[in-house]
Amino acid sequence: xxxxxxxxxxxxxxxxxxxxxxxxxxxxxxxxxxxxxxxxxxxxxxxxxxxxxxxxxxxxxxxxxxxxxxxxxxxxxxxxxxxxxxxxxxxxxxxxxxxxxxxxxxxxxxxxxxxxxxxxxxxxxxxxxxxxxxxxxxxxxxxxxxxxxxxxxxxxxxxxxxxxxxxxxxxxxxxxxxxxxxxxxxxxxxxxxxxxxxxxxxxxxxxxxxxxxxxxxxxxxxxxxxxxxxxxxxxxxxxxxxxxxxxxxxxxxxxxxxxxxxxxxxxxxxxxxxxxxxxxxxxxxxxxxxxxxxxxxxxxxxxxxxxxxxxxxxxxxxxxxxxxxxxxxxxxxxxxxxxxxxxxxxxxxxxxxxxxxxxxxxxxxxxxxxxxxxxxxxxxxxxxxxxxxxxxxxxxxxxxxxxxxxxxxxxxxxxxxxxxxxxxxxxxxxxxxxxxxxxxxxxxxxxxxxxxxxxxxxxxxxxxxxxxxxxxxxxxxxxxxxxxxxxxxxxxxxxxxxxxxxxxxxxxxxxxxxxxxxxxxxxxxxxxxxxxxxxxxxxxxxxxxxxxxxxxxxxxxxxxxxxxxxxxxxxxxxxxxxxxxxxxxxxxxxxxxxxxxxxxxxxxxxxxxxxxxxxxxxxxxxxxxxxxxxxxxxxxxxxxxxxxxxxxxxxxxxxxxxxxxxxxxxxxxxxxxxxxxxxxxxxxxxxxxxxxxxxxxxxxxxxxxxxxxxxx
Length: 712
Ligand SMILES: [Zn+2]
What we know:
alpha+beta, single chain, 31 strands, disordered C terminus
């Protein structure tokens, strides 16, 4: 019974299947027929319409800096198109055009025979060539206006601006995020043709004009951007880092005044650079911040009142948390200190204690308020969000390491935004990159007002934190950021990079975050030096960059020097670092001691090849100068060998050092009488010049004369 009905069902199913297959085959056959055999006929009918539309590109909006200086402009450019249906002789047309436009003749001919209503031959060509094409008067070939994007400042602010593609569409930077403002709407020229494809001269040509794009005014200040890029290029050269970044913003408005990464690229010719260089690391890179993150721990601890500035802490050198020892960076520990001293010394053990006092709930509340673990919402593409242990899974050991900026990843823009919130008396503002958009008549179509996100700490807490961070620069680990007369507040950071299976040996990120003037901040700034070669402490290599950039910006903003904190004179005397490059190490150390400075040698050679800070930098008395004996860090390019004849050793050494050359001295202590290479030759910086000095008496004993450097 059951088996019989099964057979019936199976037979019915088979019949149905065959029926469906027949229908499918029929449909496919019809499709193939229409697509291939009937296709020319269909296309002929389609292109036989008498109306043709030639697109007219809208002029893309200009990008200005905050003071109306041009950063991106569009210049008119001409493009050659074809209307294949109007072409009489495709072979001849292709031959003539291919010669003029340096195109492949056969490929072009094949293209022109296609049944298409419109196609581009070559876009954005030179005006002279466009004129030649016009002169040919080829039927079915025309020229229309397009735009070519131009960045008159070259590489300046490349990572902010981004670039555009062949259709003038934004591909990166604000060109991408504000494409809808900049783009405008394309227009068209409508041309009527007779039945044989000739343009009807008397027919009405309709012109739908394009709507030009809006102009953008960025928050960027070209001068501040230049200051920042100049110092970045310098520090990239000096530290041979993998990459370096700076973000500068106005803490009162959240406006980004400068943002740059080096190495960078030229947006005029972006395709010639590896896409890796297009990446905006300042917003796309999440990194372990290290000690700079202690400003967040400090703000949270003061805000939660778990610590007072004068509370005492004891650092025996290490602290045990969940069976793991966390060491202070200072061997043997800092001993007994106040909380202010803990911050000044960047004491790990002190901060671990503070973090544990705060506890997970409070700490995570501040992380969220300060905007970590979510993008800041800056209007630039590719922003990362950072990384941290989930609140529900966090253990005391995580709290302990996060308190010192480890086992957490943040983006540079997150960290500088958080620092700016402290500077802004506790109110966190969304960082912004565009001030306003205007139409071609100059009317403001959209203005971007400061965008407060949340209050992270009370104003009074912010004041306390600012005071402590100012002490870090005056007397603590941030001393190298100090400049006489400027009240700078900030924090150094040095973090070991995380590699596969733990921390990566010898790979560090040195950084400095802060703001100035401390009592009325005009600028918040973050410096990041990623994988420097040689010294890697943030206090040694990032703090001086921060100090120089902030000093130059404040001078540009006409913030008068204040003569030290609270109107007092500077807490310490400052001295100029004497030039000691090319001196024997022992002499260099003696020279530095005489100037009231300490010396530290990083390498084992016997003659100084380079020094940090550079000669004539002003530093607090007692600061350390790093001496290198093997790794000079010089500018690229060539230098001319000077004539050293008659110069005593010290003068010859100083002169060569100023030029970036090394000395290999021989002979006595009087004037030079032989040198190799000879004067006038061109050599790479860092080249060693052998100099022979005469015996004392021949030129007079001038070997120990103290010489002023030639040029500051
Ligand atoms: Zn310590």
